[in-house]
């Protein structure tokens, strides 16, 4: 299924508590998971090699959840906090 994906590129950095810093965030439109894996492999080989401390990950930009009150499926961004997610009880109790 073709959908939008968000690509995060990190670089190893000892100055950060997590040990890496975010270098780039890009949204790739209308791709399926196989195409994204191929694109990430090419990016790692050509521009952002792991040997120089780079790490690339991708996630679907939107996720499908079921509204707790109406039962309707809706699309929300993958990084939506739980307090803003209509599929959680926390959203409806505030």
Give a short overview.
The protein is of the alpha+beta class. Helix content is 20%, strand content 41%. The strands form two sheets. A three-stranded antiparallel β-sheet has the order 2-1-3, with helices on one face. The chain has a two-stranded antiparallel ribbon with strand order 4-5.
Commentary on this structure:
This protein is of the alpha+beta class and 94 residues long. Helix content is 20%, strand content 41%. It has two helices and five strands, in the order ββαβββα. The chain has helices spanning 33-46, 89-93, and strands spanning 3-12, 20-31, 54-60, 62-66, 73-77. The strands form two sheets. It has a three-stranded antiparallel sheet, covered by helices on one side. Strands 4-5 form a two-stranded antiparallel ribbon. A hairpin with a 7-residue loop joins strand 1 and strand 2 (20-31). The longest helix has 14 residues, at 33-46. The model has no long low-confidence stretch (mean pLDDT 94).
Q: What is the string of helix and strand elements?
A: EEHEEEH
Kindly estimate the percentage of residues that lie in beta strands according to DSSP. Answer: 35-45%
Query: What's the overall average pLDDT, rounded?
Result: 94
Physical arrangement of strands within the biggest beta sheet: 2-1-3
Give the low-confidence spans. none
Helix and strand content put the structural class at alpha+beta
Helical content band: 10-25%
Largest sheet: 3 strands, antiparallel
Which oligomeric form is depicted? single chain
H/I helix tally:
2
Please report the total strand number as a whole number: 5
Cα distance spanning the termini: 35 Å
Query: Rg, please?
Result: 17 Å
């Amino acid at each position: 299924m073709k959908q939008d994906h968000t690509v995060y590129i990190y670089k190893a950095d000892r100055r950060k508590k997590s040990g890496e810093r975010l270098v780039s965030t890009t949204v790739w439109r209308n791709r399926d998971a196989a195409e994204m894996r191929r694109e990430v492999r090419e990016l790692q080989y050509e521009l952002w090699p792991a040997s120089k401390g780079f790490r690339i990950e991708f996630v679907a930009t939107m996720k499908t959840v079921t509204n707790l009150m109406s039962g309707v499926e809706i699309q929300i961004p993958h990084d939506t906090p739980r307090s803003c997610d209509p599929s959680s009880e926390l959203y409806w109790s505030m």
